[in-house]
C-alpha cells in the first residue's frame, strides 16, 4: 500500500502535468485559429488579420474578448438543460482525449521517472475512440435542443456523418496496431524506433508505420477529417453558408466552446496520426542533456503542426462534398478499403511468421 | 478503490431512477447513458479494462446514439398519463417488490460478505480476451457476425418507406 | 475490498428498476430503454462473477450480450419507426389491435 507522501507526490506531479498540457493545448487552439485565418487568406491572395498586434498575432485574444462580451441568447422554445449541456459536453470530451497522448520520452528528476504524458493506459487508443464516440452526442443534442429546423437537420446529418466515419477510423488503425502489437500509445511509438532493415541491411528509412501502412494512413486521415467535420466534409456545419448547421442558435461563449472543441478534436486527431503512423517523437537526437530531453517533444510538435497545416491547406483548396457523396464515400469506399488493409496486413504478418 | 465503487454505484442507481421516472424520452436516454458510463467505470474497477472501453464505445457510443436519433426523428415529446385500468398498477407493484426482496434474500444467503477474497489478478487485457475469443469461442463469434448482418438487413427493410 | 454481494446487489437494483419501468411506462422507446437497462444489470452480474471466480469466460459472455443487444436495438428501433409511420403514436396502449 503506497504511503501518503507517495500518493501526494503522484497527485502533485499529475496536477502539474495537467496544468501544463491544458495550457499548451488552449494556446495551441487559439493560435491554430490565427494560423487558419492567415493561411487561408494567403491562399486566397489577401492578407488576413494584421491589425491587432504584429501580423495579427493578438487576434485570438481579441476574438476571445469578443466571445466573452457578446450577448448570450437563449431561444424561447429551446430545452434549457440540454441547450446548456451540449457545448459543455463537447468541450469536456474534446479535452479529455489529450490525457493519454504521449508527447515525448521523459526524464528522471530526483530519482523519479517523469514522462511527457498525463497517463498511459494499456487500452489508450480505445480510450480515445471511446471519447470520440461520446462526442457525437454534443452535436446531436445541440441540434435538437435548439428547437428549430436547420439546427435539427444539421445536427442529425453531422451525427450520422460522424458515426459512419468512426467505423473506417477504427478499421484503419487496426493495421498499425497489428504491426505494433499493443494498444498503448506509448507502446506503439516505442515500436517505431530505429530504422527499417531489409535482410539485415540498414536502409536509413525511419521505422515509421506509414511506410508499411500507406492505405491505412490514407483511410485514417480521410476519416479523421470527416470525423472532425472539416472541409471538404463540413456540409452539416456550413449548410448553404447562410445557416450555421447545428450551432445556428448558439452565441458567444457556447459558440466559442463548439469552436474550441472542433479545434481540440483536430489537434487530438493529428497527434494520433503522428503517434500511429509517423513515429511520434522519434527524430534525430543530438546535443547536450537538456536539449536531448526536449528535442523529442519538438519533433512531435513539428509533426503535429504539419498535420494541422495540411488540414488548413485542404480548407483553403477543396470544395465541399454533397451529403450523399460524403456518405457513400464513407460506406462504399473507405470501409471496404479499411477491411482490405486489415486482410493484407494480417496476411503479410502471418507470412513473415 | 472501494470508495470509487460506491460512488459510481450510487450514480448508476440515481441515473437509473431518473431514467424510469422522467416524462421526456430524451432525458431518459441521457440518464441511461450516465448509467452505462458508470457501469463502465465499475467494470474498470473489476479489472476488465477492455470490456469497460467496449461498453463505452459500443453501448454508450453507438446503441444509445441510435436511440437518441430515433427519439429526435420521431419527435417523441412528453408522455401522456395512462388511460388504462388501474389493474396493471395494483398487480405490478407487488410483483416488482416481491422480485426485489426475493433476489436480495437469495444474494444475502448465498454470498455472505465474509466469503473468500477474490483471486489476485484477472487479466482483462485485449490480448487475453482476443485469445479466448478466437480459440474457444470462434463459433459464437462467427454466428454473431451473421446475426449482425441479418439485423442490418432487417433494420434497413423495416424502416424503408416504400419498396 | 468490495464483496461480491455488493456487486450483485447493485445488479439486482438496476434490474428491478428496469423491470419496473418496463411494466409501468407507456412510451415504447422508454420501455425499450428499460430492457437495455435490464441487460446491463445482467452484464454487471456476469462481470462480477467472472472476477470472483477468476474465469475470463464471463467477460466473453458480456461481449456477446453487448453485440446481441446492438443487433436487437437496431431491429427494434426500425420496428418502432415503422409503427410510428402507421399509427402516428408512440404509446403502447395504441398498439393493441390483437388484444381480445
Describe, in plain words, how this protein is organized in 3D.
- The complex is a heterotrimer of chains A (353), B (163) and C (100).
- The longest helix of chain A has 40 residues.
- Chain A is built from 10 helices and 4 strands, in the order αααββαααββαααα.
- Chain A is mostly helical and 353 residues long.
- Chain A has one domain.
- Chain A starts with a helix and ends with a helix.
- In chain A, a hairpin with a 2-residue loop joins β1 and β2.
- The radius of gyration of chain A is 21 Å and the shape is globular.
- Chain B is an all-alpha fold and 163 residues long.
- Chain B folds into 2 domains: 77 residues, NADH-ubiquinone/plastoquinone oxidoreductase chain 6, subunit NuoJ (Four Helix Bundle (Hemerythrin (Met), subunit A), Up-down Bundle); 39 residues.
- Helix content of chain B is 75%, strand content 0%.
- Chain B has 6 helices and no strands.
- The radius of gyration of chain B is 20 Å and the shape is globular.
- The mean pLDDT of chain B is 87.
- Chain C has one domain: Helix Hairpins, CATH 1.10.287.3510.
- In chain C, 78% of the residues lie in helices and 0% in strands.
- The mean pLDDT of chain C is 90.
- Chains in contact: A-B, B-C.
In short:
Chain A has 353 residues and is mostly helical.
Task: Outline the secondary-structure elements.
The complex is a heterotrimer of chains A (353), B (163) and C (100).
Chain A: H1 4-43, H2 59-69, H3 80-96, E1 107-109, E2 112-114, H4 124-145, H5 149-180, H6 185-190, E3 195-198, E4 201-206, H7 214-227, H8 252-277, H9 289-317, H10 323-352
Antiparallel strand pairs in A: 1-2, 3-4
Helix pairs in contact in A: 1-8, 1-9, 2-8, 3-4, 3-8, 4-5, 5-7, 5-10, 7-8, 7-10, 8-9
Chain B: H1 2-21, H2 25-45, H3 49-74, H4 87-110, H5 126-135, H6 138-159
Helix pairs in contact in B: 1-2, 2-3
Chain C: H1 4-24, H2 28-53, H3 57-87
CATH class of chain C: Mainly Alpha
Helix residue percentage of chain B: over 70%
Strand content of chain C: under 5%
* Class per helix and strand makeup of chain B: mainly alpha
Largest interface: B-C, 86 and 69 residues
Amino acid at each position: 500500500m503506497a504511503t501518503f507522501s507517495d500518493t501526494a507526490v503522484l497527485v502533485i506531479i499529475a496536477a502539474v502535468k495537467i496544468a501544463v498540457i491544458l495550457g499548451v493545448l488552449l494556446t495551441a487552439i487559439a493560435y491554430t485559429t490565427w494560423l487558419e485565418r492567415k493561411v487561408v487568406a494567403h491562399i486566397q491572395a489577401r492578407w488576413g488579420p494584421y491589425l491587432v498586434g504584429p501580423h495579427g498575432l493578438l487576434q485570438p485574444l481579441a476574438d476571445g474578448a469578443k466571445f466573452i462580451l457578446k450577448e448570450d441568447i437563449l431561444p424561447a422554445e429551446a430545452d434549457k438543460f440540454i441547450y446548456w449541456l451540449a457545448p459543455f459536453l463537447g468541450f469536456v470530451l474534446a479535452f479529455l482525449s489529450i490525457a493519454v497522448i504521449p508527447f515525448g520520452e521523459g526524464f528522471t528528476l530526483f530519482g523519479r521517472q517523469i514522462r511527457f504524458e498525463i497517463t498511459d493506459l494499456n487500452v489508450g487508443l480505445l480510450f480515445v475512440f471511446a471519447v470520440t464516440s461520446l462526442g457525437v452526442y454534443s452535436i446531436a443534442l445541440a441540434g435538437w435542443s435548439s428547437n428549430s429546423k436547420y439546427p435539427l437537420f444539421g445536427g442529425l446529418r453531422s451525427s450520422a456523418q460522424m458515426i459512419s466515419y468512426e467505423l473506417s477510423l477504427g478499421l484503419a488503425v487496426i493495421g498499425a496496431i497489428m504491426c505494433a502489437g499493443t494498444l498503448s500509445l506509448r507502446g506503439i511509438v516505442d515500436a517505431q524506433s530505429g530504422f527499417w532493415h531489409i535482410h539485415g541491411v540498414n536502409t536509413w528509412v525511419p521505422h515509421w508505420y506509414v511506410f508499411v501502412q500507406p492505405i491505412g494512413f490514407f483511410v485514417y486521415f480521410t476519416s479523421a477529417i470527416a470525423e472532425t467535420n472539416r472541409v471538404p466534409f463540413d456540409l452539416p456545419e456550413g449548410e448553404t453558408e447562410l445557416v450555421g448547421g447545428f450551432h445556428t442558435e448558439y452565441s458567444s461563449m457556447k459558440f466559442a466552446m463548439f469552436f474550441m472543441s472542433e479545434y481540440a478534436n483536430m489537434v487530438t486527431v493529428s497527434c494520433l496520426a503522428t503517434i500511429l503512423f509517423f513515429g511520434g517523437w522519434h527524430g534525430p537526437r543530438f546535443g547536450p542533456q537538456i536539449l536531448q530531453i526536449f528535442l523529442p517533444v519538438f519533433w512531435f510538435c513539428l509533426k503535429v503542426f504539419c498535420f494541422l497545416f495540411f488540414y488548413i491547406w485542404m480548407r483553403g483548396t477543396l470544395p465541399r462534398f454533397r451529403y450523399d457523396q460524403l456518405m457513400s464515400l464513407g460506406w462504399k469506399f473507405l470501409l471496404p478499403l479499411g477491411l482490405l488493409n486489415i486482410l493484407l496486413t494480417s496476411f503479410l504478418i502471418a507470412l513473415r511468421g | 478503490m472501494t470508495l470509487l465503487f460506491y460512488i459510481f454505484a450510487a450514480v448508476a442507481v440515481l441515473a437509473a431512477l431518473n431514467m424510469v421516472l422522467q416524462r421526456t424520452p430524451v432525458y431518459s436516454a441521457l440518464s441511461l447513458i450516465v448509467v452505462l458510463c458508470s457501469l463502465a467505470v465499475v467494470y474498470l474497477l473489476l479489472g476488465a479494462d477492455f470490456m469497460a472501453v467496449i461498453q463505452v464505445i459500443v453501448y454508450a457510443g453507438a446503441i444509445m446514439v441510435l436511440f437518441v436519433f430515433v427519439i429526435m426523428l420521431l419527435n417523441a415529446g412528453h408522455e401522456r398519463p395512462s388511460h388504462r385500468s388501474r389493474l396493471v398498477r395494483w398487480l405490478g407493484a407487488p410483483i416488482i417488490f416481491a422480485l426485489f426482496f426475493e433476489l436480495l434474500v437469495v444474494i444475502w444467503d448465498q454470498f455472505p460478505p465474509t466469503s473468500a477474497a477474490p483471486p489476485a489478478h484477472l487479466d482483462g487485457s485485449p490480448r487475453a480476451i482476443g485469445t479466448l475469443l478466437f480459440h474457444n469461442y470462434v463459433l459464437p463469434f462467427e454466428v454473431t457476425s451473421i446475426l449482425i448482418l441479418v439485423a442490418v438487413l432487417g433494420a434497413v427493410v423495416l424502416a424503408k418507406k416504400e419498396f | 475490498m468490495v464483496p461480491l454481494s455488493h456487486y450483485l446487489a447493485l445488479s439486482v437494483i438496476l434490474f428491478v428498476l428496469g423491470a419496473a419501468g418496463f411494466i409501468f411506462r407507456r412510451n415504447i422507446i422508454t420501455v425499450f430503454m428499460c430492457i437495455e437497462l435490464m441487460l446491463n444489470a445482467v452484464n454487471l452480474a456476469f462481470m462480477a462473477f467472472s472476477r470472483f471466480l477468476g474465469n475470463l469466460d464471463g467477460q466473453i459472455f458480456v461481449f456477446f450480450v453487448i453485440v446481441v443487444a446492438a443487433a436487437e436495438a437496431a431491429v427494434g428501433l426500425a420496428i418502432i419507426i415503422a409503427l410510428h409511420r402507421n399509427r402516428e403514436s408512440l404509446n403502447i396502449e395504441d398498439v393493441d389491435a390483437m388484444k381480445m
